[in-house]
Design brief:
By secondary structure, this protein is an alpha+beta fold. The protein has a single domain (about 10-110, about 155-200), classed as Roll (Pnp Oxidase, Chain A). Helices cover about 30% and strands about 35% of the residues. It has five helices and ten strands. It has helices at about 10-25, 70-75, 105-115, 115-125, 135-145, and strands at about 35-40, 45-50, 55, 60-65, 80-85, 90-100, 160-165, 170-175, 180-185, 195-200. Strands 1, 2, 3, 4, 5, 6, 7, 8, 9 and 10 form a ten-stranded antiparallel β-sheet that branches. Strand 8 and strand 9 (about 180-185) form a beta hairpin. It is elongated. Its EC number is 1.4.3.5.
């Protein structure tokens, strides 16, 4: 059966949600995994795999230590790109746009939803900075476990929060036989502007 073409009349957020639900049903691990690309002010790029933790019409949310390399680059150059690739579905989505910090309330709510050890790890870790010995991190984690026994509220660290990418460009890519892939892009010149859509050559 021939794969249907991407519908250019689709709402891009609804189409993203539809594809994400399909990925959640098909991908064995972390269907919300995505590549995040950032760059320094002088244009030196870096990319890493992270997890999407929220998506709605305002944008796409992820969390990090604010002292990490990615956070530093996002503060200095608040533009980023995301890539979702679902190999089992032979689909990918590329998203580009500016980023902004999430609110404290949003960060608090997500932090509270994490497992106890994940929250303690966020406190113990100096993310992205040199670690002379893994035992040092394990020791710091043990200290935090003692400081916050099971059932004790664990406050969100001041240096841990999130970012929201506000999409200006969303490209959907669907594999088709013989590398005759289907590509469709949604663009908008301003956050409140209407989306402009077009199909792209494979």
């Amino acid at each position: 059966m021939t794969t249907p073409l991407i519908d250019l009349g689709s709402d891009p957020f609804a189409l993203f949600a539809h594809w994400m639900r399909a990925a959640e049903a098909a991908e064995p691990n972390d269907p919300n995994a995505m590549a995040l690309a950032t760059a320094t002010p002088d244009g030196r790029p870096s990319v890493r795999m992270i997890l999407l933790k929220g998506a709605d019409r305002r944008g796409f949310v992820f969390y990090t230590n604010l002292e990490s390399r990615k956070a530093g680059e996002l503060v200095e150059n608040p533009q980023a790109a995301l890539l979702f690739h679902w190999k089992s579905l032979m689909r990918q989505i590329r998203i580009e746009g500016p980023v902004e910090p999430v609110t404290d309330a949003e960060a608090d709510a997500y932090f509270a939803s994490r497992s106890r050890l994940s929250r303690l790890g966020a406190i113990a870790s100096d993310q992205s900075r040199p670690l002379a010995d893994r035992a040092l991190f394990e020791h710091r984690l043990a200290e935090e476990e003692a400081r916050y026994p099971e059932g004790t509220p664990i406050p969100r660290p001041a240096d841990w929060s999130g970012f929201r990418l506000i999409p200006e460009r969303i490209e959907f890519w669907q594999n088709r036989a013989h590398r005759l892939h289907d590509r469709a892009v949604w663009r908008r010149p301003a956050p409140d502007a209407a989306w402009e859509t077009t199909r792209l050559y494979p």
